[in-house]
Design goal:
Blueprint lengths: L1 H25 L3 H11 L12 E2 L2 E2 L5 H15 L2 H25 L6 H8 L18 H6 L14 H19 L2 H10 L1 H11 L11 H18 L19 E6 L6 H6 L5 H7 L16 E6 L8
Antiparallel strand pairs: 1-2, 3-4
Helix pairs in contact: 3-10, 4-7, 5-10, 7-8, 8-9, 8-10
């Protein structure tokens, strides 16, 4: 009996030892956990480039305040990875529309990044009433020939809105003296920036004491320019096929009333949702057009959507 008891005790001891050894191997110790965490994800301080500029106008990074503000925007936008990837994806789709219009007006290409920070390249809606990729206010739109009402809102027409943005920026550059100040005025208004320059007796954006939003505004544009221009440098990895592409379209001229866009869309083999995706400036499912104005409605080329 004693032999049996000793044998069982020995077996039990072996089992406990085995469990102890297994636990030691599998236990998520602090050391193992920290090692795994470090290997899986790293956050680095960023090196602010020495030669940053906006529209050819240098950023005075030798000024400690300017350096810190630039560093902040690079960090915030680099480590907001999901948003950053969306900007790369949308830029592939919308920059080809924006870039030639900027060039045609003589506006520096860097201003396409202003559209990025204004709206994330979406048809955003602000509490103040601004709309579209360029976030244009109703009065500014109407002053520059855009139609804005409940039936048609051309601030949502990217091509037309980009022309208006260019006109504003050229006027701001002429009034304020630099493209950097023109960019700041897109946020604070031409008169608002001019008044602060006079009050503080300075001539540069980088010497102005401004509120939080306008004070960060140009730095955010420059940060997005730097990151979107050098994706791998800032840790963004993607293939060209991961980015969004525009769908080829053709334009249909309309100079009459359209009573039903549901049926109008069906005539071109698409549905109303697809019609709206390509023409967000059409705000209602009909077009009043009592004045017989000429509109151009974009229709996607055949084969790009499957419609039931």
């Amino acid at each position: 009996m004693k032999i049996v008891e000793r044998f069982l005790a020995f077996v039990g001891l072996l089992s406990l030892c085995a469990l102890f050894i297994y636990a030691l191997q599998d236990a998520p110790t602090d050391e193992n956990f920290e090692k795994k965490l470090i290997n899986d994800y790293n956050v680095y301080a960023l090196q602010v480039p020495d030669d940053l500029n906006f529209a050819g106008e240098s950023v005075p990074l030798n000024n400690p305040d300017i350096y810190e503000r630039m560093d902040r925007e690079l960090l915030v936008n680099t480590y907001w990875q999901s948003n950053g990837l969306l900007m790369f994806k949308r830029a592939k789709k919308y920059f080809p529309v924006i870039e030639p219009i900027l060039k045609a007006h003589g506006v520096p290409d860097d201003f396409k990044y202003l559209a990025v920070i204004e709206s994330g390249l979406t048809n955003a809606v602000s509490p103040a009433g601004a709309r579209g990729v360029w976030q244009i206010m109703p009065a500014t739109a109407r002053e520059n020939g855009l139609e804005v009402n409940s039936n048609v809102d051309e601030r949502y027409n990217l091509e037309k809105a980009t022309h208006v943005a260019c006109k504003y920026l050229i006027e701001a550059k002429d009034k304020l003296g630099s493209w950097t100040l023109a960019a700041a005025s897109y946020n604070a208004g031409k008169s608002g920036v001019e008044r602060r320059l006079e009050e503080q007796e300075v001539s540069s954006y980088y010497d102005l004491l401004l509120g939080e939003e306008t004070g960060r505004y140009v730095f955010r544009i420059i940060a997005l320019k730097e990151i979107l221009s050098h994706p791998t440098k800032y840790g963004f990895n993607f293939r060209d096929k991961d980015l969004y592409n525009s769908v080829p379209t053709f334009k249909v001229e309309v100079d009459t009333v359209v009573t039903n866009f549901y049926k109008f869309a069906q005539e071109f083999g698409i549905n109303y949702k697809i019609l709206k995706l390509h023409n967000p400036w059409l705000r209602e499912p009909h077009l009043n057009n009592k004045s017989r104005k000429q509109y151009f409605i974009e229709i996607p080329q055949e084969g790009h959507y499957m419609v039931n």
